[in-house]
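Title: [Solved] Nitrogen fixation protein NifU 3D structure

Original question kept below for reference.
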Amino acid sequence: MALTKLDQLYRAVILDHSQHPRRRGVLDKATTQIELKNPTCGDVIQVQLTVEEDKITDVRFDGSGCTISMASASMMTDAILNKSVDEALTLVNEFSEVVQGNKPEHEQELGDAMMLAGVSKFPARIKCATLSWKALEKALGSDGTGVDGQLTHD
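Solution (posted by the thread starter after getting help):
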């Protein structure tokens, strides 16, 4: 099966984010942090955020996992930096739509994360792609105040 030029571009962007992740590391002054695990495949992700006056002013992730999981986390950090909590939570929902094969309203806001739309063809990989986004959602909390601690994502 030959890859189209667009598929090759998507693959290249995903590999670039996986091999050269953006904002991977630890925040010295995180206001909230969380760790989620995908027990199905063993992926683990830690997300740390600095939220000041309802704005995500810094974000880092760390962990271990497959190419999709690590690329998605890197793409997520690009998409949410300097966004309000509400904007970031909207992007979580938009990304969930993307990996389920639906067209999001704010496609441009997702940036490179749109490259993971093809995951919808592989249902077993959806959890890999959404792990960091679920961590972000839990870290921000439904009221936007965030949580500290460790949770397991099933």
